[in-house]
Amino acid sequence: MKLIIKIALGIILALFVLVGIVTCVGGCLDFDEELQTEEYEEGSSDEYEEESSDEYYEDEEEMDNNASNDNVAPGEESTIVVPANWGDGTCRPINAKQFYQLVASKKNYDTYIGEGPCVVDFWADWCGYCKQIDPYMKALAKKYKGLVQFYKVNADENEELMQLYGIDGLPTIFFCNGEDIQMNSGAQSQEEFDKMIQQMLEM
After folding, report:
1. Which of 24, 91, 118, 130 is the catalytic position?
2. Is 130 annotated in the active site?
3. FRET pair for 200, CA 20 to 30 Å: which of 43, 45, 150, 160?
């Protein structure tokens, strides 16, 4: 009888040990599977980011290669400018480098090179008259949408243009059409600016 009990206890103990071993092995396999899954996901993510990055730079390179630098004079620094829709009805801010491509080159600064008529508003934050005419320019940009492109140049941030054109007062407005650049200094009424634009379009 005692022998039977010992055998039964031994079998139960062996079963417990076997279950423990199976559970441990199963847990290790699950952990290894999870680890492989994480590594795969990380690898896939890195590969996607690398491909996306390469694709982005390829597209950017292609855009740079397709952009035109015809308006940059020899010896001048070349800057890629993505052209906006002409006469989009806004006063578009530009800097000196963009000015040299869209309005006039540094070498031939008195010759307009743009695609169509434009108005360039030289302004500054501290200039009270500049703030006074700002709504006039915005209204005229909407009125002449599709006909005239309006630009704004911050005088404090583009001092080289101020020196190049000898601008010593603000606001100063350029009216450009054909190859002509007409300069006008000082604040005017919206009606006066409107007349100047009409005269520019007749040039």
Report:
1. 130
2. yes
3. 160
